[in-house]
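Run log, item B.
One chain of 422 residues. Sequence copied directly from the ordering sheet:
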Amino acid sequence: MYERSFMEGTRGTQAVDWEERIDVKRLREERYAKALARLEESEMGSMLLVSDPNIRYVTGLAMTGGSGADHYTLLTEDGDIVHWDTADHASNQRFNCPWLDDIRYACPGLGNVPRASGRDSARSWLKQKMADLVYEAMEEYGVHKEAMGLDVGNMGLIDAFENNGVDVRTKECVDLMHDARKIKTEDEIECLRMVASICEAGFQQIVENAAPGKRESEVWGDAVREIWRHGAMAQGGYVTSGPNTWPKHQANTTDRMMRPGDIVYADFYNIGYLGYRSCYYRTFSLGEPTQAQQDAYETAVDNLYDVLDRIEPGATTDEICKGFPDMEGEHADWYGATDHWQMTTNHWAHGLGLQLYEVPLIWRGLSPDHPIEIEEGMTMAVETMEPADRQGVRVEEMVVVREDGVEVLSQWPVEEITVIEY
């Protein structure tokens, strides 16, 4: 495993002038530069970004979901950015985001607004208006005669652009942004270290608050409050207990009361710090775990670290995925499954960044026949699970690929189940 340097890691969530922390200006500029460099190398003259993570990657703007395509961004090969947004957002961005100098009001051609309009004529008008606004900007910036990338494959929107004579490229645009985003900068890695540390503050709340008679929802509420207190956004995750731990209970926290002898686990996924998403499992027990639960946990950790030991630059995902369990180890008979592709989310590794699932994906259901090469600077979460005594354990680490292996960003103790005394 990669050994990080002294003092390398999270130093605090506040801005200070007396030590080097996350440099948000550099974070924005380096992401923008990576996307622009790949656009310049392509045959496209511009890209229209509708996907929220892509917009944030290029502009640095906070994307909160909205109603769908009520914000979108044009990046030209000369480095110009035009951003369209809703009235209030655009007005605030003009005041708060001085690094962007061309912010316009959006017409939402996709998403909730056209869906709610109730008429096909309205939906067609909205799409064409959106395309016309973008085309006008393309003319202003001199890229209207060149191909335009589009990161969503909506045929109605593509048709609207083609009505204006635009050569729309979707696959090229999607591939370009995947390539730009797959290798993280040091500031992006530090954002992931930071969100991991905030998740650990949430785990501590579970240790302090879980007890027989407490409901899962109460314990989860305490953890989420702590996460928000540290400046992160809780946009996913759950706590589950007892029989809800095998199989996992629809990724939902319920009002079940915890009982002595329960396994409790928490999945802090989609916890965002500066937009960078966590995926981080830990397992707890109310009182001492049984021998079967300890054995299951040891198996889950061994499987996870077998995978981690295989990850290094140049390794390929078809070889790495062999560290995950075979169909017997997947307990496929219990599920009535016959192939690995049916076991999505149980044992795999997935990229982390501005989205929960980014490049790479390491999974027995896909990687053997569709391998990709691991590169230094990729970030990912690796997760495993195992049943025991009609309950289940889960464990997950967040890592970044270094020149000689992986650096583990998650720091909550993993060697044994965390025992909660009550």
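Observations after the first pass:
- The chain has a mean pLDDT of 95.
- The longest helix spans residues 186-209.
Flagged for discussion on Thursday.
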